[in-house]
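Last lecture ended with a question: if I hand you only a sequence, what can you say about the shape of the protein? Today we answer it with a concrete record. The protein is N(6)-adenosine-methyltransferase non-catalytic subunit METTL14. Below, first the input exactly as provided, then the predicted structure, then a couple of comments.
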Amino acid sequence: MDMLKHLKEKSQKRRRLLAQQLGAGSTENLSSILGNQDDRNASSASKKLKMDPVVMSDAESKNEEYKASKQPTTTEDPVEEVDDKVRTYTDSSTFLKGTQSANPHNDYCQHFVDTGQRPQNFIRDVGLADRFEEYPKLKELIRLKDELIAVTATPPMYLKCDLETFDFRELNCKFDVILVEAPLEEYQRTYGMTNMKFWTWEEIMKLDIEEVSSPRSFIFLWCGSSDGLDLGRQCLRKWGFRRCEDICWIKTNINNPGHTKNLEPRAIFQRTKEHCLMGIKGTVRRSTDGDFIHANIDIDLIISEEPEYGSIAKPEEIFHIIEHFCLGRRRLHVFGRDVTVRPGWLTIGPALTNSNFNREAYNSYFNKSQVDYLTGCPDRIEALRPKSPTPKSKGGGSGASGRGGSARGGGRSRIGNRGRGSHRGRQ
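The predicted structure:
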């Protein structure tokens, strides 16, 4: 009896609080304000048939709340209690009106737990085709850039070789962009790959990348999502590059929702991303090197579907990011495969099934003039592309003119420490 009395007092206190919040004046006016006078009358009529108090279980309470939420009314049912019927409610949404907590449908974390759908699955317009539908100038810029890249791209060349013993100097060429896509040991643990040789970071560091990198050049290194974030930076330093960007691949699972079962032993969370480190060699400035780089065209995120289990394929968008950013035509893809052979690139690696590389023919594409290794930039692209803010000149002068690109301000800002996004590197 003491428990029943306590529950009744608690219920009355809740009713008084709800009446105060809704401005009902008294608890007697709650039924008319909330539109459940009929339910109250039905409860009063049931008093003659059933005199014992009823305490609802958690399951019954949740069922009642679910039914109430299905009613076509914009006002949630209150915690309606009569003197002879006691209900125990575990949901506090009635007392959280006007707050975000009252809407459980926005809880994507719980949705991921329940369904396996990742939160990034709900990000809109991430595809290359529909990304710029609401931005006609950017859409036009990307179209013009893609047309220029297609026209100036060299025929695809590829070379099957054992990178453990291959001498990069045999290529007899310096490259403006190098993409390294090594089969990391991490992939064996996370992707279940067993049909290929996996490389340790010590072996990757021994590659003679510095022998084929141009005095001003960029490197993109896929480094996984664990130890490679630190060891990849060591590789960049050994090869003569300094890190200037970190491109993050966010993996969706729209086509195959569920929870990852191949968890790493030391992982606390399920890993749904992968990183590509970007490094720069030499001095490249945003304001003066418009002939070599176009910053701020793409962002440092790639959101695309996770490949099927057992595949180490990377998103094709990384090629678009590189080609949009760097205007150099000499592009090298290390650890490439047959499916990654594309115009404008020299692809090398042990996974290739054939070779067509000819060093004399390849170098002939770039020796017609001193700037033949660049794609060039039409006036229309120059007018459309986003420009980086020009820092104030310390000396108060008018600044220096660019190397092939127009000088935009008198700053001496470096691109080297922030490859494509906003300016946040060393000055």
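Comments.
1. The chain has twelve helices and eight strands.
2. The beta strands are 157-160, 175-180, 213-224, 242-252, 273-281, 301-305, 331-334, 345-349.
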